[in-house]
Amino acid sequence: MKTIDFAGTGAQISSLCLGCMYLGTKTDQETSYALLDLYHERGGRFLDTSNNYAFWVNGRRGGDSESLIGRWMKERRNRGEIFLATKVGARPTAPGAGLEAAEGLTAKAIARAVDESLSRLGTDHIDLYYAHIDQRTTPLEETLEALDGLVRQGKVRHLGCSNMATWRIAEARTLSRLKGWAPYRCVQQWHSYLRPRPGTGGIEVPAAGFTFQLNVDDELLDYCKSNKDFTIVAYSPLLLGAYARADRPLPEKFLGADADARLRALESVAKETGRTRNQVVLAWLRQSGPAVVSIVAASTPEQLRENLGSLDLVLSEEQMRTLSEAHG
């Protein structure tokens, strides 16, 4: 698997990231290990998890995915090969609670959470640590200073944000630069080939002061084109299986004439290349400007093999135009 430079830092990351949300919960340990082994055998080294995965499954509280990855790395003795990403901010603080009781991004919450994640992962550092949310009830300066402290302590190598509006990203990075703090190097946002309808934003959690499931928009794409030291990492690029499975309807905010037109273009290019829709979507994201690192998840090795099969697909300029210019 090819690697790319991470946001101008010199760190190398795999061009396709393995999402580990359900490892250890919906996906049992045997299957989880099979997925991790397959990804590793194909040269993949970029793992994405979070301290709250997956608290909503069977009364869990989060941390299961981190714990499983920690066990796998220990048994395979490969921690030094892995670029490991996890997150803080959206883990409920009480059993049975939801995001309204998220831990948040205060300095105290961050300090506690990072040590817990390090323990579950069985490591002394995290390569990429995300603020999982943009909690506006906590001063941005407090959050950024706390995250910078983790970098200075050696517990974290790089910082990222997630579910954050572009103007807030710009504000945060400017503040970090002025203070001499480690900056956000990437944003993890929902992004795919289909575009959400205008005016359909994320899901607000007023009690906790944040919004989640924010999509990449034109403003963010423009920001990244002008800031080469900042990268987009796309979650749910395959829309939860909707491109491939008739029993998985498109998320509501993607429905409409624009989606219909782009699905026709996608089907045309898939037939022309002899590849699946999923593979074409991943190739389009990789070849678009600015370049996007996609997170792919799978519940079976067969699904993961299909996703990895996108890596040798190079779309022609004409095929890229067909896909990019489709609209309704």
Automatic annotation (TrEMBL):
Enzyme Commission number: 1.-.-.-
Name of protein: Oxidoreductase
Residue span, NADP-dependent oxidoreductase domain: 16-325
InterPro entries per record: AKR_Detox_Biosynth, NAD(P)_OxRdtase_dom_sf, NADP_OxRdtase_dom
Residues annotated as transmembrane: none
A GO-annotated cellular component: cytosol
GO molecular function: oxidoreductase activity
Entry keywords, A to Z: Oxidoreductase
